[in-house]
Amino acid sequence: MTDTMANSLKQAKTLRDPTIDPVTVRQSRPGQDEGDRRERSRRHRPSRVVFTILLVVSLLLLFPVYWIFVTALKSPNQLASGGTLLWPAPAHFENFIHAVTDIAFLVYAANSVFLSTVSGLLTTLSSALVGYGFARLRGPGKNVLFGVLIAMMMMPGIITLIPTYLLFARVGLVGTYWPWVLWGAAAAPYLIFLYRQFFAGLPKELEEAAVLDGCSQARIFWQIFLPLSKPVLVTAFVMSFAGVWGDFISPMLLLDNSNTTLAVALTNGYVNEKGFPLNNLIAAGAILYVIPLVLIFVFIQRRYVQGLSATGIK
Amino acid sequence: MSAASSSVHPASRPRFYQTTRWRQGRDFYLFVSPWVVGTILLTIFPLAYAFGVSLTNWDGISPGFRWVGFDNYAKVLSNPETWASLGRTGMLALVVVPITVVGSLVLAVLLNNKVRFRAGWRTLIYLPAVVPPVAATLTWKLLFERDSGAVNAILGLFGRDAVNWMTGQQVFIVLIVVMLWGIGGGVIINLAALQDVPQELLEAAELDGAGHWRRFVSVTVPTISPVLLFQFVTTTIGVLQTFVPALLLSPGSGAAAITSVPESNRLFMIDVYAEYFAFSRYGYASAMLWLFFVVILLITGIFFKVSGRTVFYAVDPSAGGRND
């Protein structure tokens, strides 16, 4: 019943001519002309209140960002004197150079890039394969497996990580990058679900001709479906890349000082001769560590949100 | 003619491995095999292994161990620290989960208005959610720093004495703040859900005389309830497992960090980790791990049981793709 209702609503939406329906115009187009906005604000008058709330919330959420820059630009003496909220004068931009040179920053960064890229690419591809299987193929036990997949999305990560580490230690994989290859090849439930929703929504005609021609499923997947799934591929890669880049526990458990990632190096690298943490360099290092993620997300935000909403979890 | 008639004769049916059904099943399992094999090797087997270890007195180092049955479980359950750390973890969830879920819904509703610079607000609110837990914790640690932190500087403006935020009960507040900073992730998901609420339904309700609040409660919330439930469950599971922020808010660094976590931040996973890697009590730690696993499973199960009556699905979630 709800299905038919949704369908008829969709039809009504496409049939209606928006130019002759002022309500729809007002509801559906952001950034209206001045008169329209004034009329609306007279009717509901929410804008100013909403604007103020958003301003306060944003300031609260962004103040830490301001502060980490302030801290990163202070000298040890300026840090010690404390007590002020103002931008430091003079600002010590050379702290960023120290953050990169005082520890093997570039080596750790390269480790992070390498691990995140390899694991991200593997996860993106393996999840696509599995998602395709669940969306377009039939097999005994499929529904049960799909239930298991959903349950795995709720699987508590750190609870399985510790015993996995114990096992990796027994087979000599601790200190190597192989665990990330294995995790990458094993696909990620959430991304499988994302692909599955996407592939299930594509029309049946896509592979029918290919199946009649005796094309193998591998070729249908590789040549027809994978090229169509570019938006999901991008989302999946960014999500898995960011996941590995931000992960702290796995490299802390599995890697050592010589081959660990930036996430771990940040927390124990910046200390003075007496072993006390150098807060200004920690701040500068943390900024450099986060910037790539922020840039990626700002640039692909729209696509990322589309990918998220494509999952149908919502 | 005779060839054609013999091909429909039951005796010469194609063998099972030649049928379409078999081929389809084979293809299905080939495609899903990375995940099936991966789950068995990297999730199920490790959990089973931990269960095995939980029945021993193994210390993780020496080659020998003794089977002790369920002794470790009895010890865990009779240890007051177990209940204390469960209590702290539950308290964290009780504070963080409702604020995150309700707060991100409210922010999404505000952003769904036609407010100026909407895309800009969205990006700003989402930004902290992009920051990984390590960097988020380090950032807040600098804000709450006793002598050079901003929080004490602000308190100073009001003539208040500097607070030592990294000890006592205060550090639990810092932990809560770190957890709440990522609220923007939920905002983005809720916003996407809100934009899928059929305008026509809202307009129909408005014509029927429903006010803002009534439309929100009777149309919007039921429509997006699956998203809210999903968020509620995943946030709860995530908060219960909190580990990195609590670890990094300790004064120590490196291997010493785990044993220097202030008491009010000794969450359950902190205790588990310490039992494994600081005290080398693998058997006992594995029993803790398994008990916690069961607790999380139960909580998740209860959520879904309760939600069966209250969550509205526009599309039957158990209906599959085109092949089902």
What does it look like?
The complex is a heterodimer of chains A (314) and B (324). With 314 residues, chain A is an all-alpha fold. In chain A, 74% of the residues lie in helices and 0% in strands. Chain A contains 17 helices and no strands. Chain A has helices at residues 2-15, 22-28, 34-43, 47-72, 76-81, 94-101, 105-136, 142-153, 157-170, 178-185, 189-200, 205-212, 217-228, 230-246, 249-254, 262-269, 279-310. In chain A, helix 4 (47-72) runs antiparallel to helix 17 (279-310) and helix 7 (105-136) crosses helix 14. The radius of gyration of chain A is 26 Å and the shape is globular. The two termini of chain A are 20 Å apart. The model of chain A is unreliable at 1-35 and 37-42 (pLDDT under 50). Helices cover 67% and strands 0% of the residues of chain B. Chain B folds into two domains: 9-41, no CATH class; 71-310, MetI-like fold, CATH 1.10.3720. In chain B, helix 2 (20-54) packs across helix 14 and helix 6 crosses helix 8 (170-180). Mean pLDDT of chain B is 87; it is low at 1-8 and 314-324. With 324 residues, chain B is an all-alpha fold. Classes of the chains: A mainly alpha (314), B mainly alpha (324). At the A-B interface, helix 1, helix 2, helix 4, helix 7 and helix 8 of A face helix 2, helix 4, helix 5, helix 6 and helix 7 of B.
